[in-house]
Amino acid sequence: GGPTLVEAVHIGFAVDTPAGLVVPVIRDVDKLGLREVATQTKGIVEQVRSGRARADLYQGGTFTITNLGAEGIDAFTPIINPPQAAILGIGRIKKQPVWVDNGFVPRDLVTLSLTFDHRIADGAPAARFLRSICASIENPAERLIP
Q1: Is-catalytic flag, 122?
Q2: Which runs of consecutive H residues, i.e. helices, occur in 12-77?
Q3: Is 16 part of the annotated catalytic residue set?
Q4: Of the candidates 71, 85, 82, 69, which has an alpha carbon nearest to the alpha carbon of residue 122?
Q5: pLDDT: is 8 or 63 the higher one?
Q6: Which of 13, 46, 117, 122 is 20 to 30 A from 19 in CA distance terms?
């Protein structure tokens, strides 16, 4: 048989704490708006860093996002936390010259690294997913305005 599809999307995100890296989870992200995700993320980070997070906050993730950009890292290979399907690594944002029309213009660039489980997803759909993320970053208004 093929891969087992999950019916819920629970996104884990890496948080650096004095005790080490932890990955709390935002539940049912596919049903939340961007503002709700931002609000929940902020609240969860506060709980985690203060030591008030419940154990169930770290369970049930289906996908993780990790960002080493703040540490000055451009690209890295994030490792999947089983049984999750994939992990997206985000590097630092750097201003770089980009050729546009007839000359170079400064642009903010970031490297994204997607590691995915081939038992769950093939390379082509994973590449389309990553391309969709890139399109959202490049043109956020298109995704935010219905």
Answers
A1: yes
A2: 34-50
A3: no
A4: 85
A5: 63
A6: 117
Residue ranges of E strands in 1-146: 11-13, 15-17, 20-22, 25-26, 63-67, 86-90, 94-100, 103-109, 112-116
Comparing C-alpha atoms, which of 22, 14, 18, 84 is closest to residue 53? 22
Q: Which of 28, 56, 108, 122 is catalytic?
A: 122
User: Shortest CA distance to 65 belongs to which of 126, 120, 115?
Assistant: 115
State pTM to two decimals.
0.86
**How far, in Å, are 30, 79, 130 from residue 85 at the CA level?**
15, 11, 14
- Overall average pLDDT of the 104-127 stretch: 93
pLDDT at 144: 66
Give the Cα separation of 83 and 31 in Å (integer): 22
Tally of residues, the chain: 146
Residues of the chain above pLDDT 90, percent: 75
* CA dihedral over 23, 48, 111, 130, signed as positive or negative: positive
